[in-house]
Here is the input.
Amino acid sequence: MKIGVTGGAGFIGRHVVDELVARGHQPVIFDHMGRAVSGAPEWYYPVMMGDVRDEVAMAELAAHVDGIIHLAACLGTQETIQNPRPAAKTNVEGGLNFLEAIAQYDIPGVYIGVGNHWMQNTYSISKTTVERFAAMFNKERGTRCNIVRLVNAYGPRQSVAPPFGPAKVRKITPSFVCRALTGQPIEVYGDGEQVSDMVHVTDGAKALVSALEKAAEGVVLDRAVEVGPAEHHTVNEVAQLVIKAAAGMGFDEVPLTHLPMRPGEIPGARVTADTTTLPLVDMSADKLVNLEDGVADVVAWYAEHWLPGHRAAA
Here is the structure.
């Protein structure tokens, strides 16, 4: 199948594109800046330039593909609280444009939700609003849209925020890893005892593509697929795994330092996945990438691909 991937040049999107190709599908990257996946053959990874906020562009994408995986969104927890409008417009209006497009052309779709769907911050509210619209579209308009919620996705190629890179949104794994590799204390929000489960991005990509294939077969799931581990870890424990992996590569161990909780987050929160939903896409928690192994691989990736450039620029 030819599958449109909104946000296909982003972190999760690039791994979804890889998974689609591995399964014999042809991805079409839909990107508002016309970015391609680095190193990909042009004939294999066509790019359509367009913005999810543009209903005409989204309909044009749907007219040229056999299904759509909708990943594009305005990210950020604390970053979007002071001005929620851009995120609300991109996420809610973009989500509606996606649903209208798959309805118009009667093609299957997958919408990516968030693990902390119950939190009261702009990102969670806007993303979860579209989940409810998707349920309405499936019931009232006969769409075939499945929902996949990932807990905190991590893996190679995730963008890096200041002071280590240009990304506008700070993510837990690159933040921890970059500090561990440069000998700086790892900054943890709150006391670090909150649970923020992690899922390797390749496992998330598998679930998203499987959910699209299910929808193409006419299987519309009655609940969201939640992708995350059966064993839970605190943020402090994730940080310690990063420190351990870096030390195993010869880097000095760094301490933890604690900062006030970010706006939009809850002290002591538990962001976990209902792993009983994984069989809906023929997956199981025991087959997911082990967190300790995954973190070690990611630390090694940043040491090889990010650190030399950072040192050269310093």
About this structure: The chain has a mean pLDDT of 91.
